[in-house]
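Give me structure tokens for this 116-residue protein.
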Amino acid sequence: MVSERLRMRLAESGRFSVADIGPVAKEAQASNLQSCGGCDVSLASKVGADLAITGMVHKISNLILGMTIFVRDARSGDNIAVAHASMRGDTDESWTRALDWLVRNRLLARDYGAPR
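Here you go.
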């Protein structure tokens, strides 16, 4: 749900064109994108994307969680942005509020340069 909402929010902004990940979806789901040694970047390149955007949620307790979104250059693999928010409560509402806040106040609040 959160992944699809992230894609939707980025596309709605008009600043991002979201690539179709269908061709690499199985490979992505079979990998741990945060610790696969750059497979997120190679998967993004396979679908013609300029950026690889992945996320991670760290559950500290049933009440305290942290959501992080990573934006990496799909050519070089360099980190372009890392956005983090703490959230309270493990509910759909807390997850969507944290994601919306990150998109609005972190991801869309910066310039990623001209598209290539």
